[in-house]
Write a structure and sequence with these properties.
Number of strands: 3
CATH topology: Heat Shock Protein 90
Number of helices: 2
CATH architecture: 2-Layer Sandwich
Shape: elongated
CATH class: Alpha Beta
Strand order of the largest sheet: 1-2-3
Strand content: 15-25%
Structural class: alpha+beta
Order of helices and strands: EHHEE
Radius of gyration: 14 Å
Amino acid sequence: MMYERFIKLIIESKIDSIALLSKAIRAICATVLNDEISLYNLELCLVEAVANVINHAYHRKPGNFVEVAVTIDDKHVLFQIFDTGRQSDFIQW
C-alpha cells in the first residue's frame, strides 16, 4: 500500500531565506531517505532551483514568494516549485 505525504513551504524571495528552506527540505526527506548522498543531492538540487527563481525571476527583489510543494511516497520524492516572477525568454538563449 502506498502512503503519500504532502507539505507546502513558502519563503520570501531573499537569498538568505534559502538556508531555512534547505534545512526544512533535508529534515522532510530524511523521514524516508537514510542515504546521506541522496539527501545532499536532493537538497542541493532544490537550493539551486530556488536560487535561480530568486535571481532570475525576481531579480533578487524581496517581497515576492517562492512556493515549494513536496510530495513523498514509499518510492519517490517530488518537488514542485512555483513563482510569479518574470518568465525567461528562452528564444534569446
